[in-house]
């Protein structure tokens, strides 16, 4: 999303360890904040935002008595720049606390004065504070269709309460939130006149795109900076495996990796490295950022520089560890790394549930990448894991059945309108994004150096020209949508 987003989505591959199937987590959503504790500065309520709660029915699609159970959905609202009947910009929340997404979507706040827009950030059901009381018995109502209906009902109610029914609504989202924004425009065109879907991998389902695209892109990001950097990381996995075969190997590896406690297996250290390289590629922003973690501008290049500056006698694994430490310890304040005590910041395994039901994204990794190769998902193993953990079976074809995706150019050319799909080709999720214009109003804005929803971040004085130009294009398109809407509205009033 997605993480990031963190965009941050539970995808699977088969990993054999003590004859047990272990799910392999992808690094998201899509916002991908998994196993990372968000700093306080990232979750504080942005200035001029007010926190509100809206009563939502648990189930919008049936009329059984239990469907009327209510939970309170959190949303943030900023009316500082708004004028009555002006546009309403809505962020379709991802898999996490809504403050986190509001804090990292400064683009909406930057353009609100120009459009005199009302800003609304809606938290996704079952995340943050927007949770039903009886969680264990209600997970079946956690899915994207219910979430989109939440947004539709809340927006309609808000417009009625503001007596501003004529206000045009545009939805924004990044990563999983970007997917929701695009789908919202398609499902509820009478509520939103347009959508900006940034880094939205809506084609990452049902084998529409190659399952290897995610890891291919991460590897290419490092290879473009330095072939040596790519090769060092590729060779480091084999050096790590050696520690699992020698006496006191785990103790030695723990010492090298400065772990707080002795490792029980090399898998934790491998996952720690992999997460650092993947998420750094996702947030390879042109300016310093504090999205996944505090990082400098173009952190992939900084990682490779760290590797190259170590003494010649340093091993590949030592170089890989030193580079990964930039991701986990840019401030230099961490004295040891706790690699075996991760927490899932998505909370209550909400994303785990979604990945075991509808968000089934095939993933594989070839031996041409800098990572350990693995084949595409083992469907039987996935089912066994999901049955064991949640009592459900994945539905790998459901998203494309519900929202489409196959032959998307042909379908949306005749059916859809007013969607911006923005992608940066350095973002691992871009392989599942819409990268070509579909029609005159379904536009793909693609930047070669862009990372995970770079365009949605707040503008800074150090932004490169390509990013400024991308945002200018987005503003111009949104301005056109709004102008056309008001012209149509005026003609309708005159015809009465």
Automatic annotation (TrEMBL):
A Pfam family the protein falls into: Peptidase_S28
Key words, A-Z: Glycoprotein, Hydrolase, Protease, Signal
Region forming the signal peptide: 1-19
InterPro entries documented for this protein: AB_hydrolase_fold, Peptidase_S28, Ser_carbopepase_S28_SKS
Family: Belongs to the peptidase S28 family.
Entry protein name: Serine carboxypeptidase S28 family protein
Organism, as annotated: Brassica rapa subsp. trilocularis
Gene that produces this protein: A01p007410.1_BraROA
């Amino acid at each position: 999303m997605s993480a990031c987003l963190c965009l941050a989505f539970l995808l699977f591959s088969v990993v054999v360890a003590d004859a047990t199937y272990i799910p392999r987590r992808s690094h998201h959503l899509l916002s991908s904040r998994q196993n990372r504790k968000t700093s306080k500065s990232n979750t504080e309520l942005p200035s001029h935002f007010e926190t509100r709660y809206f009563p939502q029915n648990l189930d919008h699609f049936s009329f059984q008595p239990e469907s009327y159970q209510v939970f309170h959905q959190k949303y943030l609202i900023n009316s500082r720049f708004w004028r009555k009947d002006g546009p309403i910009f809505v962020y379709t929340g991802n898999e996490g606390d809504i403050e986190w997404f509001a804090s990292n979507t400064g683009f909406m706040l930057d353009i609100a004065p120009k459009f005199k827009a009302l800003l609304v950030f809606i938290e996704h059901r079952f995340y943050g504070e927007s949770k039903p009381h009886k969680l264990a018995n209600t997970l079946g109502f956690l899915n994207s269709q219910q979430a989109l209906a939440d947004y539709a009902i809340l927006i309609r109610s808000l417009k009625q309460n503001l007596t501003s029914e004529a206000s045009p609504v545009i939805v924004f989202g990044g990563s999983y939130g970007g997917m929701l924004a695009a789908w919202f425009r398609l499902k509820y065109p009478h509520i939103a006149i347009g959508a900006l879907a940034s880094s939205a991998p809506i084609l990452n389902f049902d084998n529409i795109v190659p399952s290897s695209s995610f890891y291919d892109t991460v590897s290419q990001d490092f290879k473009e900076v330095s072939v040596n950097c790519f090769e060092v990381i590729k060779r480091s996995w084999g050096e790590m495996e050696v520690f699992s075969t020698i006496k006191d190997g785990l103790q030695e590896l723990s010492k090298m990796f400065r772990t707080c406690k002795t490792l029980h297996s090399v898998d934790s250290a491998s996952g720690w490295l992999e997460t650092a390289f993947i998420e750094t590629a996702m947030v390879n922003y042109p300016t310093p950022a504090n999205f996944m973690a505090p990082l400098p501008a173009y952190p992939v290049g900084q990682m490779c520089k760290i590797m190259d500056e170590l003494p010649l006698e340093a091993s590949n694994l030592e170089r890989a560890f030193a580079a990964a430490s930039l991701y986990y310890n840019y401030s230099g304040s961490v004295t040891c790394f706790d690699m075996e005590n991760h927490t899932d910041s998505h909370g209550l395994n909400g994303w785990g549930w979604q990945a075991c039901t509808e968000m089934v994204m095939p993933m594989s990794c070839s031996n041409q990448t800098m990572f350990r190769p693995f084949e595409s998902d083992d469907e039987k193993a996935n089912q066994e894991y999901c049955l064991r953990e949640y009592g459900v079976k994945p539905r790998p074809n459901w998203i494309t059945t519900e929202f489409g995706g196959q032959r998307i150019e042909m379908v949306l050319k005749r059916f859809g309108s007013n969607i911006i799909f923005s992608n940066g080709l350095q973002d691992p999720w871009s392989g599942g994004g819409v990268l070509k214009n579909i029609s005159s109003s379904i536009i793909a804005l693609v930047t070669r150096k862009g990372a995970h929803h770079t365009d949605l971040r707040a503008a800074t004085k150090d932004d490169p020209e390509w990013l400024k130009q991308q945002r200018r294009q987005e503003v111009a398109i949104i301005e056109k949508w709004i102008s056309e809407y008001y012209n149509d509205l005026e003609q309708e009033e005159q015809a009465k």
